[in-house]
Amino acid sequence: MAEIIPGRREEIKALKAEHGNKSLGEGIRFRGLTIPECREKLPKASGGEEPLPEGLFYLLMTGEVPTTDQVKLISEDWKLRAQTPLPSYLVELLSKNVPKTLHPMSQLTMAVMALQERSLFARAYGEGKINKNNMWEYAFEDVNNLIAVLPQVAALIYRTRYGKKAADSNVSDWAGRFAGELGFTDAKFTELLRLYLSIHTDHEGGNVSAHTVKLVGSALSDPYLSFAAGVNGLAGPLHGLANQEVLQWMLKLRREVGDSPSDQQITDYLWTTLKAGQVVPGFGHAVLRKTDPRYLCQRQFAQKHLPADPLFRLTSQIYEIAPRVLEEHGKTKNPWPNVDAHSGVLLQHYGLVEQDYYTVLFAVSRALGALSGLIWDRALAFPIERPKSLTTEAVKKLVGA
Ligand SMILES: CC(=O)SCCNC(=O)CCNC(=O)[C@H](O)C(C)(C)COP(=O)(O)OP(=O)(O)OC[C@H]1O[C@@H](n2cnc3c(N)ncnc32)[C@H](O)[C@@H]1OP(=O)(O)O
Ligand SMILES: O=C([O-])CC(=O)C(=O)O
C-alpha cells in the first residue's frame, strides 16, 4: 500500500482537475471486474470453486487480482490478528447481558462500538501523531484488526441468540473460520459462505451502508465508529434488512396458500402487498436497471447445488411473475430482483434458518468493501463531507418559485 498510494494520489488529483465536472456510472464492478469475472479469477480454497473474500479485499485495496499465496498471507494475517481474545466485557455483554429480543444487527453495532476501545487511529489522533500522510496506516491497522475479529463477534451473537455451539474445524480461511464458529462443517455451506461474503462486499460506494461509513469517516471518526454507523444503515428494510424481509415475505406466502402456490396465487399475493402500500422486498434498485448480477450468480449456485429445493423453485416462480406485476403497477424504475431476493433461500437450504440473522452476514461482508474504501479515503485525504442544506422556503426564494 505504501508503494501504491503516492502514485494514486497524483493520478486522482490530475483526474479531478481535468474531468471533475462529468457524471459517470457502470453497474456492479469490483475494480473493473464483473461478478462472473471475480468468480472466475479470484483464488479459491483448495478443492473449492468459489472466490475467497480475502482475494476480493486484496483486489479492492490494490486494484490487482492476487495470487493464491497472497490470499493465503491475508488469511494467515487475519487469523493471527483474531488470536487476541475478545475483551471480556464484550463477551459478557453479548452472551449474558443483551436481551434475546434485541435484533442481531443492533447487537453487532454494540459489539463494534465496544471494540472501538482498541482503535489505534483514535489513540494516535489523541496523541497528536496523525497527519494527512500517515493517517491511512492507522486506518489500515484498525480495518484489518476489525475485519479479522468480525466472524468471531458475529458468530458469538448467533450462538448466544439461537443456543448453538461452534464446530471443530481446521479450515483457516476467513469464511471457513466463520462457518466453523457458526457451528457448520458442511463443505458446501462453507463454499456458499465464501461466495456470499465475496459478493456482498460493496456496490459502488454510494449505497447507504458504504456511504455512511465514508461520511462518518470523513469526520476522521475511526474505522470502528465509521463501520458501526454503516451497520445501522444496512439494518434498514430498504437496504440490507431486505435480506430477511424477502424470506419472511415468502414464508408468509407459503403459510397463506400452501407450499406449491399457483402462478395466479403468487400474482394475487404480490398485488395484496402492493395494494397495502408496501414494497415487494428483494425487487427494485436505486441504480440497477436489470436483474442484479449477484442474484444471478446465487441462482447459478442454486441451479448447480440445490435445483430441487422447494424454496428455490418458489424463488424461480416469483422471478417469472413479479417483474410483470411490478411493471403493471407502474411505479418502480426497476422491476427486476436484487441480491436480497436470493440469499436467504440458499442459507435456508444449508440449515442457517434464522432469518433475523441474515443481515449480520451481509454486514460482515460489507466490512470488506466499505472499510477498504475507508483506507483509501484516508490515503487520499478526502475532505469532510458536508452537503448543503436549505429550507423549502429558501429554495423557493432562490429559484424564484
Ligand atoms: C442490497 C440492497 O440494498 S438492494 C435493495 C434492497 N431493498 C429492497 O429489496 C426493498 C424493495 N425495494 C425498494 O424499496 C426500492 O426498489 C429501493 C429502495 C431498493 C430503491 O428505491 P428507489 O430508488 O426509490 O426506487 P424507484 O426510483 O424505482 O422508486 C419509484 C417508486 O417505485 C416504488 N418501488 C420501488 N421498488 C418497489 C418494490 N420492490 N415494490 C413496490 N414499490 C416499489 C418506490 O417505493 C417508489 O414509490 P413512490 O413513487 O410512491 O415513492
Ligand atoms: O447499491 C445500493 O444502493 C444497494 C446495493 O445493491 C448494495 O448496497 O449492495
Automatic annotation (TrEMBL):
One Pfam family recorded for the sequence: Citrate_synt
UniProt KW keywords: Transferase
Keyword Transferase applies: yes
InterPro entries reported for this sequence: Citrate_synth-like_lrg_a-sub (IPR016142), Citrate_synth-like_sm_a-sub (IPR016143), Citrate_synthase (IPR002020), Citrate_synthase_AS (IPR019810), Citrate_synthase_sf (IPR036969)
Gene Ontology CC annotations of this record: mitochondrial matrix
GO MF annotation terms: acyltransferase activity, acyl groups converted into alkyl on transfer
Keyword Transferase attributed: yes
Biological process per Gene Ontology, one example term: carbohydrate metabolic process
Family designation: Belongs to the citrate synthase family.
Protein name: Citrate synthase
